[in-house]
Amino acid sequence: MANSIKQNSELTLAQRLARPELLDLTPYESARRIGGRGDVWINANESPFNNSELNKLNRYPECQPESLIKAYSEYSGVAAKSIVSTRGADEGIELLIRAFCTPVKDSIACFGPTYGMYAISAKTVNVDVINLSLTDEYQLPYGFAEQTAGAKVVFICNPNNPTGTIISKQDIEQAIAAMPNAIVVIDEAYIEFSAEYSVADLIEKYPNLVVLRTLSKAFALAGARCGFLMANTDIIDLIMRVIAPYPVPLPVSEVAEKALSTQGVELMRQQVSLLAEQGKRLSQALEAYGAKVLPANGNFVLAEFTNTDAVSQSLQQAGIVARAYKDVRLKNRIRFSFSQESDTDRLIAIFSKNK
Question: Could you give the C-alpha distances from 113 to 45, 118, 160, 164, 323, in angstroms and in order?
């Protein structure tokens, strides 16, 4: 290890868990990170011609647009210095694995059934995966802290995708405290649908906590690919060493800032309420049909059928695409995203007809 790296006792938790080579890595300084003052900008090999109606599209964007980070800070209540904007929450997952896991040597842990990209992101860079199962009530299993021992990064999706189930804030905090030697990542992609369960307010309390967020769900910007990674500044420093030079395209930043405005947040909350109403209607129709329905804490519901093939065929014939799974723990289950009233009406009509 390079001489410039501190003795282990002097390192922060994030530095102790980081890939050792990152501690001596000088981050790439893009033209925008270096900055400067002047009227003629010829430091980034950009074209001087803007051929778009969008201003400055011929120029590279800021690595972390200050106005976007400020907007998300005001929305989330998390300090701007503890926020990194990413290309969706998916990039946040990959950045954490790249920053903390050495291929072949290290591992991550996750609790299934859950979002598949945790495992895929790890396996594609030759990082091992400790797959643990949630309980029958979709809670963290007994002895999870011992079973995840050795994992560098532990992912907990809350509300969980694809089950839609929730783990209480108290239990999440206990889990963070129970795994002090791992980076504990709480994926809050669906938190706007169950806002009271967020642990973003605990970031300053726990040095091993990371919260992932996205504008893809409640903010209706899935096509923009804008997410956020929130953590203490020690973790943020390491993430900024491995992040791409320009992860936030200018059009994405502009549309995201608009979504995070006072009017944008109010619109989001109105739409969350509308989707919750449609979710209740759909859940009731599924239960009346005879399906076993899990409580919905996101913008979707997971239903278990005794005649899954017949249901799938009815949906296909009606031109409706829902989500089925190959995971044995999700056998005979179909996930339905909540949608607008007319879509819900079509679904209800199918299940009413086939009772």
Answer: 47, 11, 9, 11, 14
Q: How many CA atoms lie within 13 A of 84 on its CB side?
A: 30
Query: pLDDT tens for residues 76-89?
Result: 999 999 999 999 99
**Strand bridging mode 209-214 / 183-187:** parallel
Where the chain has pLDDT below 70, the residues are 1-9, 354-355
Of 292, 345, 301, 307, nearest to 322 by C-alpha is 301
The model's pLDDT over 81-129, given as tens digits with 9 standing for 90+, comes to 999 999 999 999 999 999 999 999 999 999 999 999 999 999 999 999 9
Angle at which helix 341-353 crosses helix 262-289, to 10 degrees, equals 0
pLDDT value at position 91?
Answer: 98
| Separation between Cα atoms, residue 330 and residue 340, nearest integer Å | 26
Q: How far is CA 170 from CA 141, 167, 185, 199, 230, in A?
A: 15, 8, 16, 9, 19
User: What tokens were used for 212?
Assistant: 């992932």
CA atoms of 277 and 291, how far apart (whole Å) = 19
The two tokens of residue 141 are 């299993």
Nearest to 341 by CA among 270, 293, 296, 279: 279
Report the candidate in 277, 326, 331 with the shortest Cα–Cα distance to residue 303. Answer: 331
Q: How far apart are CA 166 and CA 264, in angstroms?
A: 26
Under a CB-based contact definition with an 8 Å cutoff, are residues 334 and 313 in contact?
Answer: no
Measured distance CA(93)–CA(211) in Å, rounded? 10
